[in-house]
Every structure is written in C-alpha cells, then in structure tokens.
Amino acid sequence: MRFDLTEWQGAASDAYRTWAGQRDQSLQALAKASDTMALITEGAGLLIATVRMMVRDAVATVVSRLIVYAGELLASLGTATPLVVEQVSTLCASWAAKISRWLKELISSLRNLGTLVRRLGEIVQELIARLRGSRGLERGLFREGDGIVRNGKKILMSRDNVLALAKKYGIDLEGVNFSIDKFRRGGGPGKEFYGVTMPDGEIKLARDAFMDEEQLARTLAHERFHLDELRNGLPFPWTEEARKAYEARAYAYEERWWQEHKHLLEGE
User: What superkingdom heads the lineage (predicted)?
Assistant: First the structure.
C-alpha cells in the first residue's frame, strides 16, 4: 500500500494545532477561574471585616447610651429608675435585633459564596483533568485505565470505585440505592459475605465483595438480579425456602453473566 507522506504530515499538523488551541483555552479558563477564586476570597474577607466594624460601632453606641442613662438615673436620685430601665431594655433589644440580622445576612452571604467556590473548584478540577489527559493526537488510538483504584488486588471501598466498575462491566446502577458496609465481613474462607438486597431495594455491599475485581463484579450482578426480580413484582422472600429459590436463580444468572463478561477482567 502506498502512503502519501505530505497528506499525513498535513493531517498531523492540523490535529496538533487543534490540540494546542484547546490546551491554550483550558489554560486561559484555569487562569480566569483562579483569579475569580482570589476575588471571592478577598470579597469574603472584606464582608467579614465590614460586619465586624458594624458590630463594634453598635456595641460602642450601646455603651455610650448606657452611660447617658446611668447619668440620668443618678441625676434623678433614683426616681427615674422605671423610665431608665425601659429605655435600657428597648435600646438593648433594638441593637440586639440589628446585630442578629447582620450576622444572619453575613452567614447567608458566606454560604452563597461557599457554594460558588465549591462549584468553581469542581470546574478547576475538570480543567486540570483535561490538561493532564490531553494528547497530541486526540483521534489516535490509546489505552486508558478503568478508573478503579486498587490496593494490590483489593478494590478500595468507595462509591466512585463501585460506579467505575459497574460502568466497566455494563451493570446499570442508575436509580439504584446502594451503600457500603465497611465493617461487616464473612466468617473467613468459604464463609464470605459479599452483599445483600434489602426489602426496600437497597443494595448493601460488604467488605468481602471488595477483595478483588471479580468478586465485586459478581456481587453487583448478583444483587442487581435480585433487585430486578423485586422490581418486576416478585414478593420479597421472607421464608428460608423462598430465599433459597431466589438465591438459586441469582447464582445461576451470576455464573452465566460472568462467563460472558470475564474477558473484561482478562483484558486488563
């Protein structure tokens, strides 16, 4: 087969220019995001300082008025006590309400700023990920990791790992309520406890399920089969006999499913 070297060089140059343009755009966006975070931080500091000065001045005003009221009380030789007490109570209640309102508004503003900062932080992380994952030829063929974090053969116990493995093996967890029980484990070899599907449809994954990729994949497929049967209208097996029938179907499905999907593990 004959290759046109000139045409190939032109295509490569176009691809590089495209990648370089995208990289520069990401860098500019990252710089703007960093500047925005700096401005938000500075604004939050100014907001706190302003409220602090307002509270300080309010306290000074209250103290000065109390001194005046004390003078009035002394001048009246105690006869104005009821009036002074009423004035003091009104003054303190009024300024306490103002200070309370200022503090509530300050907390609300800081919460709003916190939400913006968190969202901006997520955008920055996305930009950093894009920069780290950028390649000279984005249309080239390359192999990536599966996104699953491991410790040797063990899968680290996290929701992100469960979702990444489910995506790798084509297990649909959309709308599935699952949790990770980091304390429950089986009784040793041959008595492992991997997971359970609860009557309300929640799937609980135990420690043994994370011993390696195969066991976690099998457990997810197994428990998802239970969930599908329940969602399709089968009653929850409250008796031991009914439970054994459920498990027999689930184990049979699990084995067939693994034979069809184990090549995904062998390919790693």
Answer: Bacteria
**Bridge-partner residues for 1, per DSSP?**
none
CB neighbourhood size of 75 (10 A): 9
Q: Which two tokens stand for residue 185?
A: 């484990």
Angle in degrees, CA 65, 68, 70, rounded to 5? 110
Over residues 78-102, the pLDDT tens digits come to 666 676 677 777 777 777 888 888 7
In angstroms, the CA 259 to CA 101 distance is 65
Does residue 207 register a pLDDT over 80? yes
Q: Measure the CA–CA gap between 32 and 34, rounded to whole angstroms.
A: 5
Instruction: Round to whole Å and give the CA distance between 244 and 256.
Output: 18
The chain-wide mean pLDDT, for the chain, equals: 77
